[in-house]
Amino acid sequence: MSDRNNEQRARSKDHEEKPVHSSIVADENIHAVERIQDKAARRRTIAQRLSDKVSSIASRESAIVVHFIWFAIWISANIGVLPIRAFDPFPFSLLTTIVSLEAIFLTLFVLSSQNRLTQDGDRRAHLDLQINLLAEQEMTVVLRMLREVCEHLGLHETIDSRKFRELVQRTDVSEVADHVERSIRTEEAKK
User: Fold this and answer.
1) How far apart are CA 106 and CA 119, in angstroms?
2) Separation of alpha carbons 116 and 44, rounded Å
3) How would residue 36 be classed by pLDDT, with cut points 50, 70 and 90?
4) Rounded to an integer, what distance in angstroms lies between the CA atom of residue 167 and that of residue 160?
5) Which residue from 133, 121, 127 is spatially nearest to 32, judged by alpha carbons?
6) Burial label, 120 (beta-carbon count in 10 A; 0-12, 13-18, 19+)
7) Upper half-sphere CA count for residue 92 (Cβ side, 13 Å)
């Protein structure tokens, strides 16, 4: 009899699913996120692409070096250090105008990029919320199935607990959002 049981166990082990290596699941998730990001990148307008490119270039360390060199040459040329006739004598009105215009346009490009990034973040947050709601609904179904299994097996300690009864109920998202908002206001009032 024990030989037969051992044979059955050996056969059942052969038929068990091999555990999925976590890198496969991680790779699938990484590729899904890449597809979402690629889709968002393709939706960008030419103006948004330009704003992103300008913001990217302006945020590099090399931009600081270029500006430093540019200002040093400009000022040196206009105070007589370089053998060039001054074209913008002190207080460097032309340089001030150019730098002011650059700052204005750079600010507009950065604000445009930030606005797009905020919109992308809002879309991701909305997607995250939808996935969380779906996971909550799925977990509620799993808990209900678990309750049925426990009732069938006569296991009542967990399923009779108040916490389990609360968790098995469908979550009202508006109620949770109101509760979070009240908690935040209470915490802010304490400060």
Assistant:
1) 20
2) 9
3) confident
4) 12
5) 127
6) middle
7) 15
pLDDT per residue as tens digits for the range 90-135: 999 999 999 999 999 999 999 999 998 999 899 889 989 899 989 9
Tokens representing 22 are: 């976590």
| 0.70 exceeded by pTM | no
Sign of CA dihedral 162, 164, 170, 173: positive
Cβ neighbours of 51 (radius 10 Å): 21
44 near 52, Cβ under 8 Å? yes
Q: What's phi and psi for 48, nearest 5 deg?
A: -65, -40
| The residue to which tokens 């990484």 are assigned | 30
Q: Give me the count of residues in the chain.
A: 191
Rounded Cα distance, 114 and 55, in Å: 9
